């Protein structure tokens, strides 16, 4: 993990876990919740070492690793500098106090970054929070930290899980997804892209890259992390039982799970346009290392999640400005587009497929919402039916 290269900070300062300097009396080597009567399954002797041992399980899944590290780090820092005790001495009562802290991290200058900005972890301005956590984010933190404590108990590092006494609410019905673009707003986003200049080679490259990116997000419902971490060599074709050649995109996704997504004729046409603009052959070959998205005019290297996010946010911002010009009665629509993020395109894909009566099982498998059993890898007929269903009913329609 490159994070270990971050510079050490002075004892007593808020710092990322890889740069954290903890006083001996707070490092957990003598924590009151330590397990001393059973053999330990990890070599950790301090809380920081134990947390890093837990995080090591997720190094191969960067998005998961980042989310888990963030929550473990926040609790570890709060335990030391606010509760004044090691993580391995926290009690159920401490957990209740921490939950209230998440709703309002104070003092703000100590815990919250200025103006909610995200600074590099090696920057002295880095803070654990960008602001108070929403109820949904608080629940997510609870789920992650409960998992961490349970693992540390299983590893023989802790005697008990202080979160296990929390009252667990009955599962509620899954809420409706609201963070998506309806059909009218989706048309507005496409109009913004089609209005972009393409007189110069650089403008053409930017235009076709953007069309490709938005089509990839919408038709395949990919996460931006999946776009950043997969290559064009993951496309492959095979003939179905009727002899029709169909293209697929194999994606290594969240949690290290692999799924195959229908690469419709429309998607492959957009890919061909984008590749020709880069002077590549229109169709990729198996094993090709070209990233799914490239920097403008740059060497063939993968773009970061942040870079992809910024590209899509810029399109939404331009679209919002265009809608505002239509008059005050369009202010609500403009505001909704301005709030949208890259992940909205994934929700938009799922919502639009459902509205067009694509089989819900096919939507589930396209988006990777459920794991696929080993046996299903041999069942090509359901895959072919899913491809045909997606091809027929789900199009970006430029």
Please describe what this structure looks like:
With 398 residues, this protein is mainly alpha-helical. The chain folds into 2 domains: 2-118 and 126-154, no CATH class; 183-393, hpI Integrase, Chain A (Orthogonal Bundle), CATH 1.10.443.10. Helix content is 46%, strand content 5%. The protein has 14 helices and 3 strands. The protein has a 3-stranded antiparallel beta sheet with strand order 1-2-3.
What is the CATH class designation of the largest domain?
Mainly Alpha
Number of domains: 2
Strand order of the largest sheet: 1-2-3
Q: What series of H and E elements makes up the topology?
A: HHHHHHHHEEEHHHHHH
Number of helices: 14
Q: Architecture of the largest domain, CATH level 2?
A: Orthogonal Bundle
Number of DSSP-assigned strands:
3
Distance between the termini: 42 Å
Structural class call reads mainly alpha
Poorly predicted runs are 1-11, 170-174, 371-381
Shape: globular
Query: How helical, in percent, are the residues?
Result: 40-55%
Output the CATH homologous superfamily of the largest domain: Intergrase catalytic core
CATH topology of the largest domain: hpI Integrase, Chain A
- Biggest β-sheet, characterized? 3 strands, antiparallel
Give the C-alpha Rg.
Answer: 24 Å
Q: What is the arithmetic mean of pLDDT? A: 87
β content, as a range?
under 5%
Protein name: Tyrosine-type recombinase/integrase
Main location: cytoplasm
Keywords: Cell cycle, Cell division, Chromosome partition, Cytoplasm, DNA integration, DNA recombination, DNA-binding
Pfam families: Phage_integrase
């Amino acid at each position: 993990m490159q994070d270990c290269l971050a510079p050490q900070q002075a004892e007593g300062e808020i710092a990322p876990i890889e740069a954290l300097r903890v006083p001996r009396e707070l490092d957990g080597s003598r924590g009151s919740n330590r397990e001393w009567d059973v053999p330990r399954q990890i070599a950790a002797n301090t809380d920081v070492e134990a947390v890093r041992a837990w995080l090591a399980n997720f190094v191969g899944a960067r998005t998961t690793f980042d989310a888990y590290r963030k929550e473990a780090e926040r609790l570890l820092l709060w335990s030391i500098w606010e509760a004044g005790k090691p993580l391995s001495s926290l009690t159920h009562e401490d957990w209740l106090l921490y939950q209230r802290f998440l709703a309002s991290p104070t003092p703000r200058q100590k815990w919250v970054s200025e103006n909610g900005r995200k600074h590099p972890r090696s920057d002295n301005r880095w803070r654990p929070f960008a602001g108070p956590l929403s109820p949904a984010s608080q629940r997510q933190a609870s789920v992650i930290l409960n998992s961490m404590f349970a693992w540390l108990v299983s590893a023989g590092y802790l005697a008990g899980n202080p979160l296990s006494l929390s009252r667990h609410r009955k599962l509620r019905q899954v809420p409706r997804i609201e963070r998506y673009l309806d059909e009218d707003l989706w048309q507005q986003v496409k109009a913004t892209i089609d209005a972009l200049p393409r007189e110069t080679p650089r403008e053409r490259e930017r235009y076709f890259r953007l069309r490709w990116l938005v089509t990839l997000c919408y038709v395949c419902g990919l996460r931006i992390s999946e776009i950043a971490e997969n290559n064009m060599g993951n496309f492959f074709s095979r003939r179905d039982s009727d002899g029709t050649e169909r293209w697929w995109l194999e994606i290594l996704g969240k949690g290290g799970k692999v799924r195959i997504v229908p690469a419709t004729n429309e998607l492959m046409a957009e890919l061909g346009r984008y590749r020709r603009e880069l002077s590549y052959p229109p169709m990729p070959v198996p094993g090709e290392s070209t990233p799914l998205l490239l920097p403008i005019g740059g060497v063939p290297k993968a773009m970061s999640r942040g870079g992809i996010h910024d590209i899509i946010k810029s399109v939404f911002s331009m679209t919002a400005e265009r809608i505002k010009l239509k008059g005050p009665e369009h202010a609500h629509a403009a505001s909704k587009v301005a709030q949208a993020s890259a992940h909205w395109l994934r929700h938009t894909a799922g919502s639009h497929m459902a509205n067009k009566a694509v089989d819900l099982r096919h939507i589930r498998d396209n988006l990777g919402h459920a794991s696929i059993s080993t046996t299903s890898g041999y069942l090509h007929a359901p895959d072919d039916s899913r491809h045909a269903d997606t091809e027929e009913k789900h199009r970006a329609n430029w």
